[in-house]
Amino acid sequence: MAGIEVTTLHKRYPDGTVAVEQVDLSIGDGELFVMLGPSGCGKTTTLRAIAGLERQTSGDIRIGDTLVNDLPPAERDIAMVFQFYALYPHLRTRDNLAFPLRAEGLPKAEVQERVDEAARLMRLGPLLDRRPHRLSGGEQQRVALARALVRRPRAFLMDEPLTNLDAELRADMRTEIKHLQGELGTTMVYVTHDQVEAMSLGHRIAILNKGRVEQIGTPLEVYDRPASLFCAAFIGSPPMNLIEVEVADGKLRSQGGLVLTPPPGLPRDRRLVAGVRPEALEVTEPGAEGSVPARVVSAEWLGDEIIYVVDHGGQRDVRVRMAPTVRFAADAPVGLRHTGGPPPVYDVDTEELVA
Amino acid sequence: MAVSVNEAVSTGPGRDHTPSTRRRGGRGRSVLEVALLTVLAVVMLFPVLWMIETSIKENRDVYAIPAKFFDFKVTLDHFKDVFAASGGGRSALSVSFLNSVVVAGVSTALATVLGVPAAWAYSRFSVKAKKDQLFFILSTRFMPPVVVVIPIFLMYRQLGLIDNKLGLILIYTAFNVPFTIWMMKGFVDEVPAEYEDAAMLDGYTRLQAFWKFTLPLLLPGIAATAVFALIFSWNEFVFAIFLTSSDSVRTAPPAIAGLIGGTTVDWGLVAAASVVFALPVLVFAYLVRKHLVAGVTLGAVRR
Ligand SMILES: Nc1ncnc2c1ncn2[C@@H]1O[C@H](COP(=O)(O)OP(=O)(O)OP(=O)(O)O)[C@@H](O)[C@H]1O
Ligand SMILES: [Mg+2]
After folding, report:
1. Where are the beta strands (DSSP E) in chain A?
2. pLDDT at B17 over 60
3. A-contacting residues of B 198-217, CB under 8 Å?
């Protein structure tokens, strides 16, 4: 087991595409580290560079204490699980699992033992004698995970391993992966573009955008204080309300008159945007204390909650998350007020967090 | 045919109530179609049937007027003549068949051995000006053999490759390599690169990964491609007739053509030689037909 250190990684493909502008990551030993970002932001490229399947244009990669820049994938001692599972189609599950071990030249008895252990961990018993084309997507994915496990590598790399599964199975597998990683204590880098997956899995999350790291932090940090407007819009469903505000009388005031508690250390003379989570707002009876007049534009009943889209005279409608017991009709006049603490505030021009 | 089947299916339980005119119309159409197809099949297959018939007729029946279609005496003498010389020993034709086997077999094997790895490289790696290179490779096939045969003849004369089996092998290989690269690149593209990635992470080198994982998945494609290459080399006539002259080097196509043109033509022998010549390709294509279909439909690997 080992940590992974990526410094000033830059990758330009021969056709001129810059897939990774600059990425610095410091992944701890035994950590479950998630790389999150939209399609095309360079997640796969970064992962493949760590695996050694792609040679970076510049920058260093260390696994443990070893500088692995010039090591071929085989000598990096890591296992990777692909979005497309890449099980060898002509081998039965048992042989698929045994394959990496035979490649290492382990004695038969030990191969058998490790295959059995991985099969037990991933509950593959009845599937051992089938070929991949006779396995369902979820089963194939479990085999792929088991195949990564048997080698007991120094680190796991996962490239959107659950994308091809349906929602329910995905949730199950998520739990399973998290549990497994905790049990084995092996460093894992997990790539996804699904923020729910990132939040529920990661010890820490790195948010990537256009080949750069926008923010690294625990799920809570990333959720509470997104480091940029990009992160603010990316994390959370529905995402943060980005409300243009002005500083007046020591308060933050939106165009529609909504008043927010300002965080300390606000800069002057800049156009500011406050990031307000839907659950930090409240729809009230019209005229309730501290509320501004507003109108319900639409409501989405999700069973365990209601998302109200509310127009309070600001530039954009805001989304409010409410308990399902609080019901307002569409188009009804209501009040809107802020209930949380000071929201993170961003500079409109630099799109960075300022306070 | 298909139309009438669809109608039968769609009418379903109410078939008995269908107006009889319509049913007759459907059947009439299908009868017409069958008739047309039969005529077409006869026209297309007649030369082949005639060739086979001629090869087993005695010489006087070959020239009989009116032609005898059914009531003739069957003889295998012509086939014997194809393989055995009249004075005993091997006939010139049988030598040419052997030459064809060697030339077509070796050139196909060479083209496959050279073309498949090249196709893999073009599929997997980013090569400078890949499209231009591939176009250039294909462009060598644009010119019909007749156009290039004179310059090649002159070059071969300098190199001493005239009337030499090696010369034919080389030129057929040169013609088949581009074809193999193009065909096989399509097949390699179909095999996900992740197999090799996974194998490399499992401790194999890139070449081992190709050899152990991608190659087995490519076998249907290789079979299909090789059959096409083989058929080209086997049937090739222009180079063969220009670049070889002696009986010991000549391949079958010019040798068979050489049977025609004397004062008397032994049509029975010509037909028998042609039948023998056509058989190997048919047999081979039949043996690999499963791979051929899988290969040609690009259904080799399900993603
Ligand atoms: N082999 C390649 N050659 C050229 N450009 C490439 C290559 N592979 C990826 N790219 C480009 O590099 C950029 C980053 O690709 P990458 O696959 O790393 O994105 P990603 O974050 O994994 O996206 P996704 O979520 O869709 O998988 C993309 O613009 C992509 O088009
Ligand atoms: Mg990707």
Report:
1. 4-12, 18-27, 32-36, 58-63, 66-67, 78-81, 155-159, 187-192, 204-209, 212-217, 241-248, 251-254, 259-260, 272-276, 281-284, 292-301, 306-311, 318-322, 333-338, 345-347
2. no
3. 198, 200-205, 213, 216-217
